[in-house]
Amino acid sequence: MSSFGEDLRMERMSRGIALEHITAVTKISQHHLVALEQERFRQLPGGILNKGIIRGYASAVGLDQQDWTERFMKAWRASGQSDEGDWTAFASNVGKARLQQREAAEFRIKWLGVLLLLGVVAFLGFIAVRLYGVKAGWWQTLIPSNHVGLKLHSWYDSARVWVGKFLA
Questions:
Q1: Beta-carbon-side half-sphere exposure of residue 59 (alpha carbons within 13 Å)
Q2: Is the pTM of this model over 0.85?
Q3: How far apart are CA 84 and CA 154, in angstroms?
Q4: Which residues contact 10 (CB under 8 A, 6 or more apart)?
């Protein structure tokens, strides 16, 4: 007696139908179709989705969907797979994964907001100290009078003049 997957493949080949055709008609991944024909049931998504794959395959090839679904369930049980808890575990894992992704995104957004706020506070603090230092006269002693310091000061003055003209 031949196996479920081999029988399924023989039915498909006797009708001259390629796996690509079944994939195009049913939108079922060719990876899943090959796993079905080779009886690698662990590579199938599980639960009710497996029955949908069998029904789609049987329909595309022109086989009786109910008969092949029952044959699949027998082969599935014979391979040691359980068909009860898999679906609920799958759904539970999908829900947990989505929740973890959402929490991770919220965590990243919160820390991005904190870093942005700290950057704004640091920038405003620098501007306040700079303005106070220029008015008090001690800012020039803070930056050394070398070539780089003079260049930075000239850029600052030209930017201040430009901003003054822009805002006026």
A1: 12
A2: no
A3: 76
A4: 2
SS (H, E, C) the chain: CCCHHHHHHHHHHHCCCCHHHHHHHHCCCHHHHHHHHCCCHHHCCCHHHHHHHHHHHHHHHCCCHHHHHHHHHHHHHHCCCCCCHHHHHHHHHHHHHHHHHHHHHHHHHHHHHHHHHHHHHHHHHHHHHHHHHHHHCCHHHHCCCCHHHHHHHHHHHHHHHHHHHHHC
| Token code pair at residue 132 | 């106070």
What pLDDT, in 10s, does the model give residues 84-124?
555 666 677 777 888 888 999 999 999 999 999 999 999 99
